[in-house]
Amino acid sequence: MSQTLIIGAGITGAALAYQLHRRGQTVSIVSTHAEGGLASAASFGWLNASYFLSRPHFHLRHQGLAAHRRLTAQLAGLPTSWPGCVWYEATGDALAETAADLRELGYTVETLSKARIAARLPALGPVPETALHFPEEGVADPATLARALIAASGATVIRATVQALTSDRGRATGVLTDLGPLTADRVILASGTGTPALLQPFGFALPMLKRPGLMLKTNALPPICPVVLATPDQEVRQDAEGHLHAPASAGHQRDHAESLGAFPVVLNATLQRLRALFPGQQIHFGRQAMALRPVPGDGLPVVGQGPVPGLWLAVMHSGATLAPVVAELLVDEIVGGDESPLLADFRPARFQ
Ligand SMILES: Cc1cc2nc3c(=O)[nH]c(=O)nc-3n(C[C@H](O)[C@H](O)[C@H](O)COP(=O)(O)OP(=O)(O)OC[C@H]3O[C@@H](n4cnc5c(N)ncnc54)[C@H](O)[C@@H]3O)c2cc1C
Q: Is the CB of 228 within 6 Å of ligand 1?
C-alpha cells in the first residue's frame, strides 16, 4: 500500500488526509504547527462563492460549498453551519451588478428590502435600503474542522519542520525534517506560506503575495448577528457562544494591504465599527489572531502535480471554502488518475 506524507496540518492537509483515508490510503502528516494549522487558526471561516476572481474560480468555490455539505453528511459533529450571508459591501448599481452576475452563474441570490433586513437583523443600527442575501453560504472554523478531519482520517501527526524535500532519480522520496528523514511514496505540500521555500531547490519559484490578516474576537454577547454580515466597511459573524468574529480589514478577501497598522489602533477601530453596527451592545475586545494568508501570486489556488513525479501541491487562499473540494478532486487524481476539469485553471505549471 502507498504511504503518503502530507506537509501541513491546516484545513488543506486535514481535508486531504480525510479523503486519502476514504480511498484506503495510509497517511502521515508532518507539521510545524499543531493540528489546526496556521492561517486556518486565524481565519474568518466564511464559506462562500459570492467572492470570486474568474468563472472557473466561482465554479470551484461553488463546488466547495457542496463538498462541505458532503462532509457534514459523512461526519457527525463538524463545526459547520449554514446561516447564509446578508451582503451590502457594494451599493447602488454595483450591488445590482453583483446580483446579476451571480444569478447568471447559477448562484442563489435574494434581494432584501430595508424592512426585510431590519426584520432579519433587529439589532442592526444603520439599516441599508437594500442588501443581497446568499442563502447557500456558511461558516466553519477551519482549525476546528481540521482537527475533526485529522481525527477521522486516523493519520499519524508528526510535529516537526520539514527542512527539505528529498528525491531520487527525479522522483520524490520523502522529506528531511529537524527530527530526521521520513520516506514516502508520495508527498503532498499543503504547507501554505511555507511552500515556496520547499519548492525552490527544484527550480520552481512559486510566487506568493504578502497578505497579512488580523482577526478580532469579542466578548460573548446575546444573539445579535444570525448571518454572516458583509457591510461596506465591516464583515462580521457571531459564533454559537455569542462571540463576534470580525476581520480588521473591510472586504477582507480582496484585501491588498501588505502590512497591518499598529494592532491596538486597528483593533480599536474594528471595535468602534462593530459598536456602530450594533448600537447599545456591550462590545469589548476578546482576543486577536494574526496570520499571513497563503495567497498565490495570481490570487488563485495552486493544485496538482509538482515539479517532480510523486510530489503534489495544494496551496490556496479561501482555503476555508475550497479545501474540501480541492481535497476530493486532488485525491481522485492522485489515487485514481482522474483529472477534473474543475482544476484545469489552477495547475502549478502556470508558474513554471
Ligand atoms: C485573517 C484571515 C481570514 C480568512 N478568512 C477566510 C474566509 O473567510 N473564508 C475562506 O475561505 N478563507 C479565509 N481565509 C483563508 C483560509 O483561512 C486559508 O486559505 C486556509 O486556512 C489555508 O489553509 P492551509 O491548511 O492551506 O494553510 P495553513 O492553515 O497556514 O497551514 C499550513 C500548515 O503547513 C505547515 N507548514 C508550513 N511549512 C512547513 C514546513 N516547512 N514543515 C512543516 N510544516 C510546515 C504549518 O505548520 C501549518 O500546519 C482567511 C485567512 C486569514 C489569515
A: no
End-to-end, the C-alpha distance of the chain in Å comes to: 32
DSSP letters for 74-88: HSTT-SEE---EEE-
C-alpha grid cell, residue 123:
439589532
- Closest residue by CA, ligand 1 atom 2: 43
Predicted TM-score of the model (pTM)? 0.98
Confirm or reject: Cβ of 138 under 6 Å from ligand 1: no
pLDDT digits (tens, 9 = 90+) for 9-46: 999 999 999 999 999 999 999 999 999 999 999 999 99
Q: 14 alpha carbon to ligand 1 midpoint, in Å?
A: 11
DSSP string across 112-125: EEHHHHHHH-TT-S
Closest CA to 14 of 153, 164, 166, 158: 153
pLDDT tens for 273-302 read: 999 999 999 999 999 999 999 999 999 999
Alpha-carbon 106 to chain mean position = 22
Domains of the chain with bracketed CATH:
3-45+143-207+297-351 (3.50.50.60), 85-135+212-292 (3.30.9.10)
Residue showing cell 480588521: 248
Shortest-distance Cα residue to atom 25 of ligand 1:
10
